[in-house]
Amino acid sequence: MKDNWESVIGLEIHVQLNSESKIFSNAPTKFGSDQNLQACEVDLGMPGTLPVLNEKAIEKAIKFGVAINAEIAKKVGFARKNYFYPDLPKGYQISQLDDPIVGKGSIEIQLGDQEIKTIGITRAHLEEDAGKSIHDLFENETAIDLNRAGTPLLEIVSEPDMSSSEEAVAYLKKIHSIVCALEISDGNMSQGSMRCDANVSVRKKGDKKLGTRTELKNINSFKFVEKAINFEIKRQISCLEKGEEVVQETRLYDSANNTTRSMRSKEEANDYRYFPEPDIIPIQITSDQILNIKKELPELPDEKKERYINELGLSEYDSRNLTYDLQLADFFEKALINFDDPKLLANWILGDFSAILNKFDVEANNSKVDSVKFAELLSYLKEEKISGQAAKKVLENIWENPDVSVSKSIQDLGLEQISNDTEIEQIIEKVINDNPTQKEQFLSGKDRLFGFFVGQVMKESKGKANPKLVNEILKKKLV
Amino acid sequence: MDLETLTLQEQISGLRDKKFSSVELVENYISVIGNNEDLNVFVSNDFERAIAKAKKSDSSNNIQQDMPLNGIPMVHKDIFCTEGVKTSCGSKMLDNFYPPYSATVVERLEQAGSICLGKANMDEFAMGSSNETSFYGAVKNPLNKQKSPGGSSGGSAAAVAANFSSFSTGTDTGGSIRQPASFCGLVGIKPTYGRVSRYGMIAFASSLDQGGILAKNIKDTAIALQYISGYDPKDATSIKTKVPNFSEDCESDKFEHVVGLATNLINSFGDENLSKNYSKAIKRLAKLKIKTKEIELPNLELSLPVYYVIAPAECSANLSRYDGIRFGYRAENVDNLEDLYFKSRGEGFGNETKKRILIGTYCLSSGFYDAYYKKAQKIRNLISSDFVNAFKDVTSIMLPTTSGEAFDLGSITDPIEMYKQDIFTIPANLGGLPAISIPFGEKDNMPLGIQFIGNILEESSLLNISNKFQLD
Amino acid sequence: MTIDDKTLENLSKLSKIKIDENLRNKLREDLNLTINMIDEINKIDCDQIEELSHPIKDNFNLREDKVFKEIDRESLQKTSNKTEDGFYLVPKVIE
């Protein structure tokens, strides 16, 4: 971003709550069934049908509120938000306006080594999801699938406290880790269990007044949040620098082209005509109910992070990254049962293990190498039976061949570390003899060449030589 | 024996004593209905199935303990969804609607053994006080075919008055059971909001709608009310409480009564006939030695404007689901989605319905919400509080049901005049209170009604005072 | 406050109801009569009064999180005039 501009970002995150049945009906919420097989007469808004609120939706929303230290409403009322769209069966969405179940709260984020930043959460409210409109299935028609209609949503609205896309991503990741830890959502972004709208505006540094904001819709991954916001910041700045105005509007993020485009301008802004939902009498929440939920709250990502730092001696950075993704943290803790070097384990999980998960686009829970096998692999490394480079190769090998054991893989790839002094001495002698010029230069003070010799030895040994021994012996031989 | 003139109570005992069969009852009704088609009572009939059910009921021998209405024919207002049977709600919009489910009221009456003969005509989406807004044309008052049977449950009232059944179901959002009952010389009860499930009852104004019963007398009303009452997990506003034995309670001696009177208020309307009939009713109470007490209902007259904000506002949202996509009328030859909406709704709804949706939309729209909707909700609270205060001193409140007798069809063209029909019935809906209309007095050979409004969940007391009142 | 043609146009848009030209004048007239009648409420001062949205207070009912029935798509879609392959169809929407 150009130096004299700053951006102001707020996120609205829609989290699908993982109840068995819908928020207002007995239809199932499972993802991926055939079109309209999960929409009952209530979800379809058929004449005479009525909504009855799912108690689990209330419970899960309270859990979230308690986890972010927010005030929980004593009275939870619903409202009708009126607009017409084919995937909104009743012509109104049952949502909350005046009495959101979760009031003001906050969470903390941290980027790199920067200071911890508190992001305010304005509110979180319950509402029903809409169905899906599919535009490319039929030539002249849009197809409507109402399976998703009535899925419980918790809409989490942040304060405009973020000032970069990186902060927005960190915030989103934090919310993701919290809802996953609470087990109130599966958090699966690719299936739409978590969706995000971003409100973005820019202003000259030092300006008190907020600039005109746009709302970016339809952002479905951490990566896209960053890209969409960055694109939008640039677009707004270039608008303003050209002397044009930013139009307050809703824009759709187009991930294929990495652009945002206008959806509807403010002129046509909807008049939603909210009013209290007459079919649902406001629900009273007792302090006992809140207390009970508080008591049974699982370990939250921040608490886990503190534990990793204090009890396992991990760095703040590693702890934070491990606890962003609870599946990863879970994998870490399981592997730790069989491998008692938390620091080494954390390095490997955040490094090569994460890389291979990313490469195959798999989450830790579905890893083809389980925690036991992974711990075994690291034990070989720690006992210096294989080198780090070899361990990487083995990891890839056992990922691709799940039936092969760690020891068999090491054998198959011929990667057992050479920790035999004489064998290493022989290799070193050969390397020194083959490179007399370098030896001369080294002896005349070019210390950097020591690395050259280590490299050659490793190459000669096909990466199998124990690096520690190589170092020791090489030092002796080169003198 | 004229089977069609029997009361519900007489039919139950007659069937039990095998004086006649259910098939005889049903077939007799079908023939009476056939001779009176000009009344335009039914939107659709279910005669074939009714006969089949009657046969089954007759062969099941005795009336079983758990099927107290076994073999009894009845009529549903066409606002109640009936699985596989057309449910139009009096609208072109739902002329082709065959619901795949039944209303809880329908299910419960079926479980009690009753047999539905058909679906009664009504004002479109229950919006009207004369039955003239129905897509199927107005129902005629069986007592005088020039006259309106009232609305919106006009078909339900006419069905009982014309001896098409001993009782019928109706719904009441602002008087839609009580006014037609009054116009047709019947008893009609609107129970406490939440006493009867609204599930499957097509919504007009959700915070005001309540299902109820129309019948020839109080006892029959009590019997039928029993089977539609009670908590329903499918309706979040239904009340979780035990249902008293209404037919026992209506004849019981255990109720003490202090009837609230609003003489000043009634006289303030300056309508001689209205005041005359009201004072006649007060004299009746005195003669029966029933205690009375004058009460104040200072905000009652505001009920009408409050109602015409709240009911249209709620209906404007309730009727958004009729978009031509998943059910109901769908306009043909449309250019695009907007066109589909505008034409389906423009062609599918009648004028009164459109008017109410537009008023409701106006009252909720940006800039007007506070002045209309919010304000109306506040005054609703005032009206409700007036009742709460009144019920500190009295057990029920007596008011006229309507300001006059049934009017000629087509005679009221001023919409506000029509809306004023419901001035005495609307307050009970705003307060969620049970209210009953019973025949009392007459004018120009047409019946008049008197209304008792009870405290929340006090239907038993209401039925009891009504019964005492009638035992002159 | 009265409803003029512009307001009526907006109400028609919001409620997605086409208004026939030959009915427009009568409709506007009737709406204004009703609004005049409703305007009575604005003569009352009740700022301090709470709104009442539900006649019976504190009677909330919740539902257990249970999946009940099999969904019979075929019978549910019988009420629709336009379905194909289990989808409801509407004229193509261009976003």
Task: Give a verbal description of the structure.
The complex is a heterotrimer of chains A (479), B (472) and C (95). Chain A has 479 residues and is an alpha+beta fold. Chain A has 15 helices and 15 strands. The longest helix of chain A is centred in the middle third of the chain and has 20 residues. Helices cover 38% and strands 13% of the residues of chain B. Chain B is built from 17 helices and 11 strands. Chain B starts with 7 loop residues before the first helix and ends with a helix. Chain C has 95 residues and is mainly alpha-helical. Chain C is flat, with a radius of gyration of 22 Å. Chains in contact: A-B, A-C, B-C. Chains B and C meet through helix 11, helix 12, helix 13, helix 14 and helix 15 of B and helix 1, helix 2, helix 3 and strand 2 of C.
- Shape summary of chain B: globular
So what's the overall shape of chain C? flat
* Percentage of residues in strands of chain C: 5-15%
Structural class of chain B: alpha/beta
What Rg of chain C, in angstroms, do the CA atoms define?
Answer: 22 Å
